[in-house]
Design a protein that fits this description.
Length: about 200
């Protein structure tokens, strides 16, 4: 099976089996509700080269932090510049507030993203090498696997020793499932899903 990210067919690739969950968000007079259904089991492979690259990216996060924080940094700088321009431009107070608001939103966004990336590094650094590689390969699957089916959002429950140990309510919590769906997923994973490790 070719690697989901780079398309290379290599021996020793890391294989995942995952159950698709389709979620449709419906907004009506009562607010928002969701309709959920289970899709098929999918098999994905990530080659070891892509997985190692991802592990390195997690441990040397400077580049990723810069890329992910860039929009917020631009917003921060833009906000600061706008604040100065508006202060001297004789605009109404509501308009003048735009600059500082953009600045603050930008700062909060930058800090939040950086914390998220460093938090992931913290998580991975506590794992042994094999678990770290597997965790990173799964993140690549989540980034590259289809995310939409018509209007439905697609999410994935990996069939692994961890998820096979979970109760339906633990699955529901971790993967945002409605109760009947988590029971069905639990049943399918134990009957139809084979252990992948
Ligand atoms: Zn690859």
């Amino acid at each position: 099976m070719p690697c989901l990210k780079c398309g290379t067919d290599s021996p020793g690739a890391i294989r995942f089996r995952a159950l698709e969950v389709h979620t449709l968000h419906i907004r009506d007079f009562d607010g928002e509700r969701i309709i959920q259904a289970l899709g098929d089991f999918r098999e994905y492979e990530i080659c070891t080269a892509c997985a190692s690259e991802e592990v390195q990216a997690v441990f040397l996060p400077a580049k990723r932090i810069v890329m992910m924080c860039l929009p917020f940094v631009l917003l921060t700088v833009g906000g600061a510049v706008l604040s100065l321009l508006l202060t001297f431009g004789g605009f109404m107070p509501a308009v003048r507030a735009l600059g500082p608001v953009a600045f603050v939103v930008g700062m909060i966004g930058t800090a939040g993203k950086a914390r998220e990336i460093l938090g992931e590094r913290e998580t991975v650094s506590k794992m042994n090498r094999d678990d770290a590689v597997r965790y990173c390969a799964w993140q690549i699957v989540l980034k590259n696997a289809p995310k939409k089916y018509n209007d439905n959002d697609i999410t994935y429950i990996p069939v692994s020793k961890d998820t096979l140990r979970m109760t339906p309510s633990e699955l529901a919590d971790k993967y945002g499932l409605l109760p009947p769906i988590s029971s069905k997923a639990h049943e399918l994973m134990h009957n139809g899903g084979t252990k992948d490790e």
